[in-house]
């Protein structure tokens, strides 16, 4: 990714013009280099207005996620060292696992399209080009593997809050790995680990978020997208969402490393959509109906089954 593109993008303002000469002087390059880079940003989808004697003005970001803006955000991140961006890939999870040996730092993999996207229990996750955000986060916590249940709870809250803040919606969390909006699934995430002797060396968290309308999704009555809910794609600023997303991931990941679940338990319960509802629960090959009662301080779900028994659920598939 061109450093000059990132530097110019960080200087462009949505509120006022900045002259090409000012940009050139600030960055120590020629006016011609500025002009060429502006054209490259326009090709990436940025709406940049150019007015004689005024300079350049950023009107609108691209409709879809910009690799340049993403690189700028990663450069400002205190958590991630770099990002790999793919136009298309079989799976961001596969790419993330492939890259594990290349660095000991935390990093991100992002794709516009996945041809072999998958969710929990190896279910296929439709990932058509430029309709969603497909991300794998690679984190290096060096913690006991038993802590992964808490990780999912902190991360689900980070994702839910990011969607709410960016798009003015009110998402809910379906334990343990789904985000819902208007009673339909808008996001799912898959958490996998690499561990040794009971200690996690790496968490690889794959996240798929439905952003724009897609005809293939019509076949799935339980799925929706941000655009389906809020309307015109002109209201959707994906770059702005990614800024909030990265901020919240960093905040809640640091809280996960340093705080017990009890400190976010009430916040999580307020976002949960499973309490007081009849649930179909499948675990280790068996299925039963139950009502969710509570979530304990270890992150385990407590339910009341049809026979009146209180069960503790650690890992299961839940249907509303």
UniProtKB/TrEMBL annotation:
Sites where the protein binds biotin: 114, 118-120, 185
GO cellular component terms, semicolon-separated: cytoplasm
Gene Ontology process terms (BP): protein lipoylation; regulation of DNA-templated transcription
Enzymatic reactions: biotin + L-lysyl-[protein] + ATP = N(6)-biotinyl-L-lysyl-[protein] + AMP + diphosphate + H(+)
InterPro entries: aa-tRNA-synth_II/BPL/LPL, Bifunct_BirA, Biotin_CoA_COase_ligase, BPL_C, BPL_LPL_catalytic, HTH_11, WH-like_DNA-bd_sf, WH_DNA-bd_sf
GO molecular function per UniProt: ATP binding; biotin--[biotin carboxyl-carrier protein] ligase activity; DNA binding; transferase activity
Enzyme Commission code: 6.3.4.15
Keywords: ATP-binding, Biotin, DNA-binding, Ligase, Nucleotide-binding, Repressor, Transcription, Transcription regulation
One Pfam family it belongs to: HTH_11
Gene3D superfamilies xref list: 2.30.30.100, Bira Bifunctional Protein, Domain 2, Winged helix-like DNA-binding domain superfamily/Winged helix DNA-binding domain
Annotation: DNA-binding region: 20-39
Transmembrane region(s): none
Domain BPL/LPL catalytic residue range list: 78-257
SUPFAM superfamilies listed in its UniProt record: Class II aaRS and biotin synthetases, Winged helix' DNA-binding domain
Family: Belongs to the biotin--protein ligase family.
Described function: Acts both as a biotin--[acetyl-CoA-carboxylase] ligase and a repressor.
NCBIfam families given in the database record: birA_ligase (TIGR00121)
Stated name of the protein: Bifunctional ligase/repressor BirA
């Amino acid at each position: 990714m061109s450093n000059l593109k990132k530097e110019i993008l960080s200087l462009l303002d949505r509120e006022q013009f900045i002259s090409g000469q000012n940009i050139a002087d600030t960055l120590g390059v020629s006016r011609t280099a500025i002009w060429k880079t502006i054209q490259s940003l326009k090709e990436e989808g940025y709406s940049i207005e150019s007015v004689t004697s005024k300079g350049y003005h950023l009107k609108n970001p691209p409709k879809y996620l910009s690799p340049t803006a993403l690189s700028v955000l990663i450069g400002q991140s205190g958590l991630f060292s770099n990002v790999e961006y793919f136009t298309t890939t079989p799976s961001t999870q596969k790419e993330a696992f492939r890259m594990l040996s290349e660095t000991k730092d935390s990093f991100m993999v992002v794709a516009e399209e996945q041809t072999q996207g998958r969710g929990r229990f190896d279910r296929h996750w439709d990932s058509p080009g430029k309709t969603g955000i497909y991300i794998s986060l690679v984190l290096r916590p060096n913690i006991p593997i038993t802590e992964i249940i808490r990780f999912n709870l902190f991360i689900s809250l980070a994702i839910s809050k990011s969607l709410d803040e960016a798009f003015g919606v009110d998402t809910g969390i379906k334990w343990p790995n789904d985000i819902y909006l208007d009673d339909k699934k808008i996001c799912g995430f898959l958490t996998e680990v690499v561990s040794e002797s009971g200690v996690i060396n790496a968490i690889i968290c794959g996240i798929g978020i439905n952003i724009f309308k897609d005809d293939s999704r019509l076949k799935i009555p339980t799925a929706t997208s941000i655009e389906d809910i809020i309307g015109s794609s002109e209201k959707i600023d994906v770059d702005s969402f990614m800024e909030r997303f990265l901020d919240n991931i960093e905040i809640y990941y640091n809280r996960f490393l340093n705080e017990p679940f009890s400190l976010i338990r009430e916040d999580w319960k307020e976002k949960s959509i499973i309490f007081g509802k009849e649930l179909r629960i499948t675990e280790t090959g068996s299925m039963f109906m139950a009502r969710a009662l509570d979530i304990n301080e270890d992150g385990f779900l407590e339910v009341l089954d049809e026979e009146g028994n209180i069960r503790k659920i650690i890992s299961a598939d839940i249907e509303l």
